[in-house]
């Protein structure tokens, strides 16, 4: 019999790509949203998957709601990708961010424990938890120094999971994923904002692209590759936590230049600095060390930053 996977946050970028991966592997896939009848599941539609999954409403911050869904579907594997996912927005909505990420994760863990603990659980961690690592490539032993409400929420969820794994012997893993992008990113993410603006300007738009701090460096990978690491973590004999990254970092300015180069434009003629996009605190250099994932899971990023830019631009210019 095929396994059942429950994806919390199936409507997002990672949820859609993970759905495709699991369906290809023969899984029965169930996805949740706060209101499944009202959500259009746009990303599932873009990938042609909407009719191949079962959908259910689940409020992550309501323990009874979470417990009912898990008891109803009895999933073999649970992937928690839900919660407010924007670092910038977390400064404006810190309470919503903490509740959706931290309380939601706790409700899932407690529901698994309540139902007997037989389900395998993946939780989406974040490289933002590391904060400023002074240019060092962060690995699984690098201390957390969160510098945003989003990072604080993700760090809390990480330690909740570690506690339940130790205290109740749950099969629970955290994937500490570094930045991973795709055409399914909404425009509020700066990478997609850059790509879409560059393509519009190349098509004749007279707009200016306004950005904040472009000197920050990030470790950018390709989202469809990263979701495979989530699945691989739940196939191991023992649960553990893994950093998932390319191991290389590039500045936002390099990403921006690559995007404008890809459409044949000189970025200097189309980009302006806007101080309103500066965050109260920011991390200058982010880089991951994925050695453990490579050695234990056999996972390695295939696409670097420029590959990511090219694929995102291609998706806009040739959507079919």
Tell me what the structure shows.
There is one protein chain. The chain has 320 residues and is α/β, with parallel strands linked by helices. The chain folds into 2 domains: 4-181 and 223-247 and 288-303, NAD(P)-binding Rossmann-like Domain (Rossmann fold), CATH 3.40.50; 190-217 and 249-286 and 306-317, UDP-galactose 4-epimerase, domain 1, CATH 3.90.25.10. The chain is 41% helix and 15% strand. The protein contains 11 helices and 13 strands. The strands form 4 sheets. It has a 7-stranded parallel sheet, sandwiched between helices. Strand 5 (120-124), helix 6 (149-168) and strand 6 form a beta-alpha-beta unit. The longest helix has 21 residues, at 94-114. The radius of gyration is 19 Å and the shape is globular. It starts with a strand and ends with a helix. The mean pLDDT is 94.
Summarize the model shown.
By secondary structure, this protein is α/β, with parallel strands linked by helices.
Give the arrangement of secondary structure elements.
Blueprint: E1 4-8, H1 13-24, E2 28-33, H2 42-46, E3 54-57, H3 63-73, E4 77-80, H4 87-92, H5 94-114, E5 120-124, H6 149-168, E6 171-177, E7 180-181, H7 190-202, E8 209-211, E9 217-218, E10 221-222, H8 223-233, E11 242-244, E12 250-251, H9 252-262, E13 271-273, H10 291-297, H11 305-317
Parallel strand pairs: 1-2, 1-4, 2-3, 4-5, 5-6, 6-11, 7-10, 8-13
Antiparallel strand pairs: 9-12
Helix pairs in contact: 1-8, 3-5, 5-6, 7-9, 7-11, 9-11
């Amino acid at each position: 019999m095929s396994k059942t996977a429950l994806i919390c946050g199936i409507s997002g970028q990672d949820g859609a790509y993970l759905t495709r991966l699991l369906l290809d592997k023969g899984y029965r896939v169930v996805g949740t949203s706060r209101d499944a009848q009202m959500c259009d599941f746009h990303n599932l539609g873009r990938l042609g998957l909407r009719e191949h999954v079962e959908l259910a409403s689940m409020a992550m911050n309501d323990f009874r709601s979470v417990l009912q869904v898990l008891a109803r579907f009895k999933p073999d594997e649970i992937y928690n990708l839900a919660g407010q996912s924007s670092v910038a927005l977390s400064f404006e909505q810190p309470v919503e961010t903490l509740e959706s990420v931290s309380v939601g994760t706790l409700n899932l863990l407690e529901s698994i424990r309540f139902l007997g603990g037989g389900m395998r659980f993946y939780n989406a961690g974040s490289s933002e938890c590391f904060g400023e690592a002074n240019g060092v490539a962060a690995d699984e032993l690098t201390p957390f120094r969160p510098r945003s409400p989003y990072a604080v929420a993700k760090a809390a969820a990480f330690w909740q999971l570690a506690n339940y794994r130790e205290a109740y012997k749950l099969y629970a893993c955290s994937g500490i994923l570094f930045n991973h992008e795709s055409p399914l990113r909404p425009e509020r993410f700066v990478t997609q904002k850059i790509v879409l603006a560059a393509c519009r300007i190349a098509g004749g738009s007279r707009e200016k692209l306004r950005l904040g701090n472009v000197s920050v460096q990030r470790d950018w990978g390709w989202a469809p590759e990263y979701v495979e690491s989530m699945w691989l973590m739940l196939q191991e004999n023992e649960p553990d936590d893994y950093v998932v990254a390319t191991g290389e970092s590039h500045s936002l300015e390099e990403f921006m230049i690559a995007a404008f180069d890809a459409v044949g434009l000189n970025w200097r003629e189309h980009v302006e600095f806007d101080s309103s996009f500066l965050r109260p605190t920011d991390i200058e250099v982010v880089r991951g060390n994925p050695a453990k994932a490579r050695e234990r899971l056999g996972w390695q990023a295939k696409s670097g930053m420029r590959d990511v830019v090219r694929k995102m631009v291609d998706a806009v210019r040739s959507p079919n």
